[in-house]
Amino acid sequence: xxxxxxxxxxxxxxxxxxxxxxxxxxxxxxxxxxxxxxxxxxxxxxxxxxxxxxxxxxxxxxxxxxxxxxxxxxxxxxxxxxxxxxxxxxxxxxxxxxxxxxxxxxxxxxxxxxxxxxxxxxxxxxxxxxxxxxxxxxxxxxxxxxxxxxxxxxxxxxxxxxxxxxxxxxxxxxxxxxxxxxxxxxxxxxxxxxxxxxxxx
Length: 201
Description:
Structural class: alpha+beta
């Protein structure tokens, strides 16, 4: 299973340093794939790596896997752009996908809420338990990074997934993930280099 997951997630990470952005996408993975929505992605006006204002140039796309509502894995394409100023590539991940994770956001959210009757949750129960363990292990570091967002709110108890806090603040796991990456440069699983601006020099 792990080898299979590594294969379907292969993409931009093999191409040198690049940056990943997450954009709000109201489509399901199936709708995204059939409508070739990656061709409609519009990048930001300024490069998120070097902040240079100017058009980011289309730089093709790469394939990765995502789970569908049926629980099966399907291919999607991720739009990629190039900044001519710093030479970095920027990939735009739709919000139904979690960074470096095969199972789509909605399925993991359903799992966290105990909706074990869903077909997709049942199909990926073992992997979803791994996701939750990783989220639990990273919880204290994540809370330290985002606690200011919650004002004087009491820290969650040890072993908390932080999901109740995130749901109340953002409404959905997709919205929470995008906010965490955009504002705090962090995810519920780890702090990845692809979400950080390029280092000076």
